[in-house]
Amino acid sequence: MSLFPPGKKRRNFFIAQACILVTAAIVMTKAIIGGAIDEYKMPFSSWPAELYVSEFFMILIYSGVFTLLLSIPLWYFFIGEQDPDSRG
Length: 88
Known about the structure:
72% of the residues lie in helices and 0% in strands. The chain is mainly alpha-helical. The model has no long low-confidence stretch (mean pLDDT 87).
């Protein structure tokens, strides 16, 4: 059995993974940007460039980690254990 068998199951897995990535990015952006605004008490427009960069990388890393962690059950659901007789 290959890691990502060709066909509909692989496509559905990657679509579900993309949905998780988008959802995680939205949630992380809201939490991290909102938390920084509350913590530093300054509006988004007056942030220094270093804060933009650090917040961007935090959102990128956390979204990636949550996507990888939540993809484990998706892999089992879409691609995991299969009967050798079944094709599809």
